[in-house]
Amino acid sequence: MGFSPFTLVQFLFLLIPSLVHPSRPTNGIITDQSALLEFKKGIVADPQSSLSNWNKANHVCEWKGVTCSTESGRVTELDLKGYQKFIRAVLLRTDSGVLNTSAIDLSTSYPRITYRELVEATGEFNQSRLIGSGSFGHVYRGVLSDGSVVAVKVLRIQSGNSTRSFNRECQILRRIRHRNLMRIITICSLPDFKALVLPYMSNGSLESYLHPEEWHSGLQLGFMERVNICSDVAEGMAYLHHHSPVQVIHCDLKPSNILLNDDMTALVSDFGIARLVMTTDERTMTAETAGNSMANLLSGSIGYIAPEYGYGRSASTKGDVYSFGILVLEIVTRKRPTDDIFNEGLSLHRWVKNHYHDQLSKVVDSSLMNNIRGLNPEIKNMWEVAIIELLDLGLLCTQDAPSNRPTMRDAADDLDKLKHYLGVDTTATFTSAHGVSSSTITAGDSW
């Protein structure tokens, strides 16, 4: 049985009786069932079908390994035996009586990998295996003993910030699960060494495609790839802001933190400075976590930081929306927000806006312009309309006033409509969440 691609061997959940609300046994057993079904989603391999009867057709107290209290009728123990390792975790009930799987301590919810195993996997952290580096530390390509290719993120531990960053990233990654968000395979945590083992992304980062050190034709992004990447990032961020069990503000959205897998699906990564804002059932804990971890810290990277952060405003979802808007503009223009041309009050946002109603060809990536010129008139018009929609979305997301920016859910919806418009048929139209309609855009006037 695999749990977040490692082998789960045995989980024993010990419930704290003082937090149980026995006065609500019927509702309680339903919430226990929901929590265990959510836990089951994290098991990615069950070759023996050990949990085949874990479904709503069977009463939760009849599920394999589940023991319920004869008094309250609530789940009191989960015991899965016969696997290779033993893991024990404490499962806390919240004040509302909900079985809280996200409260499992990190040290028990991920199997540990030894330092020696990582040394062997990375060829003693050989420079030839180095695939990335930054203020956080280094990332190496590794091959585990079972042949799995992984990315090993080794953190610098000279400062307390790196340890907090490591703990925060682990804390967030164990709570979230989405196809467009990076996940943890395992960790190695020692007093003088800390590393995350993550899935290896064979296509690297979006940064390497937008700004390659040496231009290679194989690193060019097609227009639909750019639209899909924008959509993938928006979906991942919408999940963090609106659908995750714990709301997360990423705080550092930029091309180097967008990784691309084998089929060019984009995954948001690097949650080292992210903030846990709230959950329905853990408000007190998460509020303290967010306050302590981010005090006196300006969140993000230069060029992507929302302007209100410079005035002391706390990190917010609208700050992430601003970073996303800059990212969208960068994907279309292939200009960094820190490019040398942006000085004396000129920014990426203002530069695009100055050309928005005419001469857009001056700001759109030249490789996209070359592709457009070779299209038939009907498809050419669709692409021009779509590029205008992307730029419009980028400009909306990067408005100075946070209240004027859309939500990531709105952005994700707009991009989904845009993909439908481009991919279904040439007569399709779309209308964005802010009323921009493809039927009212005259693309040629802007070029």
TrEMBL record:
InterPro entries: Kinase-like_dom_sf (IPR011009), LRR_dom_sf (IPR032675), LRR_N_plant-typ (IPR013210), LRR_receptor-like_kinase (IPR051564), Prot_kinase_dom (IPR000719), Protein_kinase_ATP_BS (IPR017441), Ser-Thr/Tyr_kinase_cat_dom (IPR001245), Ser/Thr_kinase_AS (IPR008271)
Residues at which ATP binds: 153
Signal peptide as annotated in the record: 1-22
Cellular-component GO terms for this entry: plasma membrane
PROSITE patterns with a match to the protein in the record: PROTEIN_KINASE_ATP (PS00107), PROTEIN_KINASE_DOM (PS50011), PROTEIN_KINASE_ST (PS00108)
Entry keyword set: ATP-binding, Cell membrane, Glycoprotein, Kinase, Leucine-rich repeat, Membrane, Nucleotide-binding, Phosphoprotein, Receptor, Repeat, Serine/threonine-protein kinase, Signal, Transferase, Transmembrane, Transmembrane helix
Family note: Belongs to the protein kinase superfamily. Ser/Thr protein kinase family.
Name the UniProt record assigns to this protein: non-specific serine/threonine protein kinase
Lineage, broadest ranks: Eukaryota, Viridiplantae, Streptophyta, Embryophyta, Tracheophyta
